[in-house]
């Protein structure tokens, strides 16, 4: 019997496809404490996928305190970019210019920037697909199973299993009915042990929700 490392892709190795170095698991590439990525999420970039946290997560300053959370099994196409809350400027005064950050005598006014606006953490759920050059704005939550079309600008929360497109991104289609979406969220297949996910890949990719529910019931019987 082969060990698990031989049976399943290794999420700790950044190169899941040795023949295609443009595709890399994200989690092993992340060194910053304010970015959290789940297993088996990948970024595809023909130039430098390993530079994701510096080139694709912008204005993410430690003192702001916001987090970027990316779930498991997310697929991020080339150019997917996250704008974080450090990009925000104050708009309640006469000027939006951030004078104090440029130092010299202006630095004594740094306290004026302490209440810069923040929309909180940016969150991608599990099994989210972001298309080519999609842009995610600060504080947005994109629900599980959602799809973001190429070159969309996501400025507001996206519900689970929605397909959004445009600037600003709008819902163009729901992948499932409300009842089906609720069933899939209850199944939460992305949280299953990798052994069970691997066993039921045909159902996860092409099966019916009922069949996947039956598979989940089998798992419960085996573990009870």
UniProtKB/TrEMBL annotation:
What keywords does the record list, in alphabetical order?
Acyltransferase, Antibiotic resistance, Repeat, Transferase
Entries under InterPro entries matching the protein: Trans_hexapeptide_repeat, Trimer_LpxA-like_sf
GO MF, one term, reads: acyltransferase activity
Question: Is Transmembrane helix tagged as a keyword?
Answer: no
List, in alphabetical order, the GO biological process terms annotated in this UniProt record: response to antibiotic
Similarity comment text for this entry: Belongs to the transferase hexapeptide repeat family.
Official protein name in the record:
Vat family streptogramin A O-acetyltransferase
Species for this entry: Iodidimonas gelatinilytica
Lineage of source species: Bacteria, Pseudomonadati, Pseudomonadota, Alphaproteobacteria, Iodidimonadales
């Amino acid at each position: 019997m082969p060990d698990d490392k031989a049976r399943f892709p290794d999420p700790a190795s950044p190169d899941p496809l040795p023949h295609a170095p443009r595709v890399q698991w994200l989690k092993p590439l992340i060194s910053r404490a304010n970015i959290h990525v789940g297993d088996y999420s990948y970024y595809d970039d023909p130039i430098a996928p390993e530079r994701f946290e510096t080139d694709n997560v912008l204005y993410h300053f430690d003192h702001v305190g916001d987090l970027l959370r990316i779930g498991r099994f997310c697929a991020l196409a080339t150019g997917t970019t996250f704008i974080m809350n450090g990009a925000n400027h104050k708009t309640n005064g006469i000027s939006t210019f951030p004078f104090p950050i440029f130092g010299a005598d202006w630095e004594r006014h740094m306290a004026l920037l302490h209440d810069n606006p923040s929309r909180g953490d940016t969150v991608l759920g599990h099994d989210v697909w972001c298309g080519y050059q999609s842009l995610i704005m600060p504080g947005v939550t994109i629900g599980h199973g959602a799809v973001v079309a190429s070159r969309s600008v996501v400025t507001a929360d996206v519900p689970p299993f929605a397909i959004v497109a445009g600037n600003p991104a709008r819902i163009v289609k729901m992948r499932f009915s409300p009842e089906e979406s609720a069933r899939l969220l209850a199944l939460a297949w992305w949280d299953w042990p990798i052994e069970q996910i691997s066993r039921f890949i045909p159902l996860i990719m092409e099966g019916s929700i009922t069949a996947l529910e039956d598979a989940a019931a089998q798992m419960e019987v085996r573990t009870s």
